[in-house]
Amino acid sequence: MPIQREYRKLEGVEEINIYDMQEKDLFKYVDPVMEMPKIPFLTTLKNIPCDLDIFIPYNDGEDFIIQMLGITALERGNIRPSDVEGRLLSECSPGFHEILQDIFYDVYKNKSNRKLRFNYYHKDKLARLANVNVLYDMDKIIVISELRYTYDKNLESQKEYDENKANLIEYFSQTGSYYKVNDRYSWTQGIYNIINRPREENDEYYNIIFDLAIPEDRPLIDNIQKKLDSGRTSLESVIRIRTHDDILKHLDLNFYSKFDENGELISRYALIKDITKNSKRITRPVDFLLNGFKNSKKLALLIDPLNQKQYEYSEGFYNIVEEDKETYSNRKVIIENIVEQDTVESFRKLFNREIDKLDETFTYNVKGNPNNQKICEIYIETFEFGQEEHSIGFLTDITDERQKQKELKEANDHQTVLIKEVHHRVKNNLQILNSFLNLEKRAYKNQPNIIIDHMQSRLSSLALLHEKTYNTTDFKNINLKDYIEDQDAKLTTLIGLRDGITFTSEVQDDITLSIEIITPLLLVVDELTMNSIKHAFPDDWPNKTISKTFRKIDENTGELIIKDNGVGIDKTKKDMKHSLGCEIIKNLTKQLDGSIKYIDVDEGTGFRLLFPLTMEHTISQ
Q: Which CATH number belongs to the domain containing residue 230 in this structure?
């Protein structure tokens, strides 16, 4: 049975709060230590509207013998006078002995009086109250307790007594209420106990509770007022106020309103309770934890998330659900925004205490919007502390992690496809080289150097293509200019320096091609270049040059002009049917879905190749 003591200086009363007292805490059956004499005026004492308990000091005040207990104490313990009279208080009622021993000893030694108030709580609600005077008279400790039920009166008297008792409880407790009628407030004494000041003349003209709200809770007050003005018949909330003597308090508010048929306010009643002690018991041990989570935007600590009023969430919670901390209340509408109905059902079971733990991953529609979703993990577990049920949990936003996992999987899948693509291209290119080699072995069987030069050039072009596409993830947009410049550099190294030939190129910057186009295009360029090297330049030819120009004709067609400044060719042989090289060029052009023809130039030989800028991209599976 948890006990708290507090001295109320304003009233000069020592207040003793007793929580969840059990019958077993009240009395035990023990043997008496002495026989008690009969108390005179017993009938008279039983009709006094208060309880009278009498104790005899024992062993110079080290303990006290029960001579008499009042009716309320006997009824509460479900015992008879003979069960307790003559017993030591320490043996018969250890719980009350622990509470009263020091008080009785002080009154006994100093022959003084002590004022007490006993508040009995059940599940944090005030169940009953007793105002007690402890005094020393006739060598005995006399305990006079106001408030006890007198069940021998008629029903009407009992009702009046109950009302008086309720008023007394409110007078001395930290629970109060107000009525609002015709824009005037009527405040009960309990409210003044809460705000710790006497009544003032103007109190009926304004809300003296709302007026004390701390700045951080002002938006919440405004929100409460808006809801009350909108026609709500009932509303619950918790706010914080700071009294005139600078004490911070947590108040539990319950509003009840009546409206006429036109929606006009008839009256409003509010029950207000000071829950500061309960709030501190919950939050103080975990303040350091909440502070540890204050900078976390994707991880939230949840303190008592199953409690609709007394809960604490770290900043991350409000960031995840995208709610305003100042106006948020612990609403189940948050759960309604969860997509997975299995998770919603698990929450229902947890709220109904059908399960004591929740561990789920779910999709959350922010503010109910399915176009703004987050993937979250939630863990909540219930536990008991101080004979009360509490809960603790964690909420984690794992949206980014899930997205990264998805992207990684897609990247791995794509990488697998790319590897297949590269293998497919290498295989095709090797088949092309093998076909060219077989053709040239027959055509140039007595000229091995020509075969070697051609193969070196082709291998260089295909190696360049393979090198540049090896680390790419995009086979649809390959920049042509980079390839042509590198191809010129390779040709200069292989042949240009040896034979004194200069290679120049001019490529429009924004030409990008798929690998299906650029592969045969480079091979066509390579074959045309090798033809010029082989046929255009005698050994003593000056300023040997092969030039290329690439440009877009329109959105769908590209143009290549390639020419040399060599000896030129016989006009009668411009049908491109007279050599193996021409056959290879024609086949590659067909593969490219393009067209090629000779063009007239001032000197040497020129060709114009038209090719598509786009072609359907397929990846071999």
A: 3.30.450.20
